Amino acid sequence: MAQTHLKEALDTLKDTGVRITPQRHAILEYLINSMTHPTADDIYKALEGTFPNMSVATVYNNLRVFREVGLVKELTYGDSSSRFDFVTTQHYHVICEGCGKIVDFHYPGLDEVEQLAAHVTGFKVSHHRMEVYGECPECSKKKEMH
Amino acid sequence: MAQTHLKEALDTLKDTGVRITPQRHAILEYLINSMTHPTADDIYKALEGTFPNMSVATVYNNLRVFREVGLVKELTYGDSSSRFDFVTTQHYHVICEGCGKIVDFHYPGLDEVEQLAAHVTGFKVSHHRMEVYGECPECSKKKEMH
DNA sequence: AAACTATTTATAAAGATTATAATATAAGAA
DNA sequence: TTCTTATATTATAATCTTTATAAATAGTTT
């Protein structure tokens, strides 16, 4: 599964004329295997061992490239740094306000809201963003123990 | 209407034991009258005339206080700085990807999504966030003229 | 293999936000 | 009203994320 995603992603890069470098390969692979929606710095630190000379700028540059090609989504929550998510299928996120954990959940999509927004405002709507906030089971349990 | 909002907001501050300073008064008033979802710096610049000695930190501090008390919502989009929105009634935003304009629209709320998320993930859901992206009529018109 | 162009690296710069410490002030008590 | 005290403001510096720049490197095409 992950292999397929990686292969498809590399094909996308090839088709778009984006060069496949070892760094790009590694960043993509890390994003696909990571279930944690990492920040740019997370990725940088994770690949430090394999690429001792890699620059943070490289990570940022390539995440931007991936975003522009549609492989990666950038998540900007309130906290300081953006998180990056490899795009697979339509899903949303629940975010724990206690520990920051992000969990995926699937939902049919909110076409109806987009249509209403388009109708009311006259915008040509292209997409939307939605996320749910709350407290994860672990944090709830911790609270109970006090 | 705006007067009412301001009065209610000041009452909220009083009830919460937050001191009402001239700066806070001015920031709240500006937020209520502003239809533009300003950044901290917008507010800072707008009040420069009235408070020549006011520090940016004051603006940030007070926006945080207002957020904690529930008077203000912080909007974090992809672009560099947060925008702040006086909380009135349940509404969402459409954001123009061309010029950045933000327009409000009302929608019943997405309780169903929250419930599904809670059920699937085991989270105690508290709230959600949603916004729609597209191109505003003005930007569409500009494009056509080329 | 040579040439061309995109990418990486290293570093500096920019920009937003927060921390700190000294000063000033709001709000309640005397 | 004046006094008192905790809180807020100011000025400044520091931090942190992200972007810009220029030189060096490495893919890709011929």
UniProtKB/TrEMBL annotation, chains A, B:
Does the record's keyword annotation contain Zinc?
yes
Matching entries from Pfam families are given as:
FUR
Q: Which UniProt keywords apply?
A: DNA-binding, Repressor, Transcription, Transcription regulation, Zinc
Q: Which InterPro entries is this protein grouped with?
A: FUR (IPR002481), Fur_C (IPR043135), WH-like_DNA-bd_sf (IPR036388), WH_DNA-bd_sf (IPR036390)
The record's similarity note reads: Belongs to the Fur family.
- Protein name as catalogued: Peroxide-responsive transcriptional repressor PerR
Per the UniProt record, the source organism is: Cytobacillus stercorigallinarum
